Amino acid sequence: MTSRAETPGLVCAHHHLYSALARGMPAPPRVATNFSEILELVWWRLDRALDGEMIRWSAMLGALEALEAGTTAIVDHHSSPNAIEGSLDLVAGACAEVGVRSVCCYEVTDRNGPEGATAGLRENARFLREGGRGLVGAHACFTLSDETLERVVGLSEDMDAGVHIHVAEDALDSAAGERLEHVARENWLLAHCVHLDRPLTGTVAHNPRSNMNNSVGYGRPARFTGTVALGTDGIGGDMLEEFRIAYARLREDDVTATPETPWAWLEGGWKLVPEALQDTVLWSYEPMDPWNLAFTPGVRPLEVRVAGEVVLENGQPTRVDAAEVRARAAEQQARLFARL
Ligand SMILES: [Zn+2]
């Protein structure tokens, strides 16, 4: 890099763009008291209510917010059980329109019956066969039968694409390690791994803020010897902020830890999406190094180039009107909330 204020484009290694409209949503019918109730009362109510227009504008808003934070590649994990077919085109299309890269997948699960699982597999297959940049998505072992998991693994091998799956996010999924031990491969992306009880092949996506928000515990990602990358799990696309949170959480656990460890996790994203190394972000601050950034909130990109094209200039997106994206997203958010 020529300037100490410049970095490659940042990578969000685990996102749920469909959740960009969720903030401020109506309260669940009762207070969720554990991880499984958070899924049932919040996220599974939300994803069942999504239709095509909501998916599109949620992804537009999420992609815009990522770009505004210097994130040029989003590894997304999508779920919309009542609007499955074509949904990955909506997510990938929205990212491309804003000007950020995406790696998409559809969340295969048995929680919506066998037809739901089949439709999810079909959407992954369709998207990948048509040349989409993606992985094969799966929810988590605790909502996958052995048979469905086998079909996920089979599709991944057929398509030569990795599997993007939630792994032992909460103690309720602590059997995941045993079930995945003999099937996980180098190209797999393993989200969370908080309660993972053995090493698995693949990249671990650590999502510190989401894990704290769900009160699932701390996975001590420094224990993993393979690649660790950072994700937001759907809470925005600001990777410098996630880096700072990752550092604070790591340091709470180990006072001798340094910012270089979570910085290496941030860099882990470039192993997943090496294209982002061709992108450049000129920041409002220098030097862009771990020891400075761990203690400097509010650093913003001034200019972002993706594959040579300026997609953010003076902090403003060049391809879309940020105010219009926010207004259209707010309309879809109102429709979504009315359904909840
Ligand atoms: Zn997730």
Kindly provide the radius of gyration, computed on alpha-carbon positions and rounded to a whole number of angstroms: 19 Å
Unreliably modeled segments: none
Q: Name the average pLDDT.
A: 97
**What percent of residues are in strands?**
15-25%
Number of strands: 13
How can the largest sheet be summarized? 5 strands, antiparallel
Provide keyphrases for this structure.
16% strand, five-stranded parallel beta sheet, 11 helices, binds zinc ion, 340 residues, TIM Barrel, 39% helix, alpha/beta
Please characterize this protein's 3D structure:
This protein has 340 residues and is α/β, with parallel strands linked by helices. The protein has a single domain (6-339), classed as TIM Barrel, CATH 3.20.20.140. It contains 11 helices and 13 strands. It has helices at residues 35-48, 52-67, 87-98, 113-129, 146-159, 176-180, 208-213, 239-253, 260-272, 290-293, 322-339; strands at 6-8, 10-15, 71-76, 101-103, 136-140, 163-167, 189-192, 203-206, 228-230, 280-283, 301-306, 309-313, 316-317. Strands 1-10-11-12-13 form a 5-stranded antiparallel β-sheet, with no helix packed on it. Strands 5-6-7-8-9 form a 5-stranded parallel β-sheet. A 3-stranded parallel β-sheet has the order 2-3-4. Strand 11 (301-306) and strand 12 form a beta hairpin. The radius of gyration is 19 Å and the shape is globular. The N and C termini lie far apart (48 Å). The mean pLDDT is 97. Bound molecules: zinc ion.
